Amino acid sequence: MKSLFINRYLPFPLDNGGAIGHSSLIEAISAETDLHLYILTGTKHTFSELDAAKNHYGRFCKKVSFHQDTEIRPSFNKFAIAWHYLTKSPHAGDWGLRRAEKIRQLINQEKIDVLWVGSPYSGKYFQAVSGTGCKKILVTQNVESDIVKHEIDGKTGLSKLKLVMKWRDIQRMEAHASDLADAVMAITNNDAEYYRKLKPADRVVVYPIAYVPENPPKTFTDDSSKDVPDTPDVCFIGSMDWPPNEDAAIFLVKNIMPMVWKALPEAIIFIVGKNPGSRVKALASHNVVVTGRVPHVSKYLSSTKVFVSPMRKGSGIKIKLLQAMAAGKAIVTTAMGAQGISIQHDTHALICDAADEIAQAIISLMGDEAKRRQLGESAKALVNSTFTMEKCRAQVRTILDRLYATP
User: Fold this and answer.
1) Binning pLDDT at 50, 70 and 90, where does residue 224 land?
2) Which end of the chain is more exposed for a tag (fewer CB within 10 A), N or C?
3) Predicted confidence (pLDDT) at residue 53 exceeds the cutoff of 50
4) 197 by DSSP, 3-state: which?
5) What's the chain's average pLDDT?
6) pLDDT at 223 over 50
7) Taking Cα atoms as reference points, which of 2, 19, 282 lies closest to residue 135?
8) Residue 6 binned pLDDT confidence (cut-offs 50, 70, 90)
9) Do residues 40 and 8 touch, judged by C-beta distance below 8 A?
């Protein structure tokens, strides 16, 4: 069986949840089919960046190719926006006629059996293969509209109206992509329930992330190899250009840590992750370190006493939480942060949502090494038994079997 997986961004280096999630699924698909990975991106990358990515994915993909083209992003011409609004078709999402023709050409030339699309934002490309007999599978990592919906909270006036319109447009995009696809793969049960409202239940499958080792292949962005200046007591890790992570970092430093510092005034917290904006950079102080992008998170995980993931927004699985679990760290997180991971409170982590409860949990763990060890060992056992390549491959086989069992 031959597959083509198209993705709208370069899923490398493995320094963010999206890249890690896609890498594990792509590896699982490659184990079950002959896979051509086709990266279709509007971002310009250097030769060294593309070469590093090709070396990584070339270890298991049959073929890896790239196309960089700014044409793929939606037009923000007022007439184009008005047309989409009046016809109730989604404006959000990528589309380029040249790229659509290229994808159809690849399908026909390589006799592709299954087209995998790595995001609802690329779902319009399913239209390019109609009539070819190729099966179409939509891969999701979040409910994208939920992320925008969370941004609406607290907004007023024109700002709120713009976000409401964006939210509804992305919902149309998700529905359109689901309608074009033969099946949908979701990353959590919660996400799957959303897509089962758009698709028959047996055509929506949850796929487990196959956990990536703590030290992934060396990246092309190794520009932060300096030693950790101090040992962090508390650590939060995530890509800071993702709005839910930015919100969590600000909530942690401004609402939670002041209560921790009353009890433990010398406690040091690290906010680790690429592309921090001005709001996150402004959190830095004598006991708050904002690192920016780092090549590997292992040294921060190994040295921190407590890993905190105070997520209040978003969907999908928080993959940095999986990394902390695999590293055997004591974790404090919210119900949102634990979503999709089957974490049990007081067994694998401490789960609480209110700022004062999170602060008290951090204070408690800081003074209890035995409890930190117990939580860490349980968390590590859970991630090692649940998030495996074998289980990810099994779900790939499940969705393929269902598609090919149906005429």
Assistant:
1) very low
2) C
3) yes
4) coil
5) 89
6) no
7) 2
8) very high
9) yes
> Is residue 232 pLDDT above 90, yes or no?
no
Both tokens of 381, joined, read 């056992």
At 306-325, the pLDDT tens digits run 999 999 988 888 888 998 99
- Per-residue tokens: 49: 């960046």
CA distance 126 to 185: 15
d(CA 319, CA 292): 18
Q: What is the DSSP letter of 8?
A: S
Instruction: Give the span between the Cα atoms of 271 and 248, in whole angstroms.
Output: 10
* Measured distance CA(263)–CA(404) in Å, rounded: 60
Structural domains in the chain, sorted by start: 2-210+388-405 (3.40.50.2000), 234-386 (3.40.50.2000)
Residue 60 burial class via C-beta count within 10 angstroms: exposed 0-12, middle 13-18, buried 19 and up? middle
Kindly report whether the peptide bond that precedes residue 13 is cis, defined as omega within 30 degrees of 0. yes
CA–CA gap between residue 276 and residue 282 (Å, rounded): 10
The one-letter code for the residue type at 54 is K
The pLDDT > 90 percentage for the chain reads 71
Which residue do the tokens 């609402």 mark?
A: 255
C-alpha–C-alpha distance, residues 323 and 94, integer Å: 31
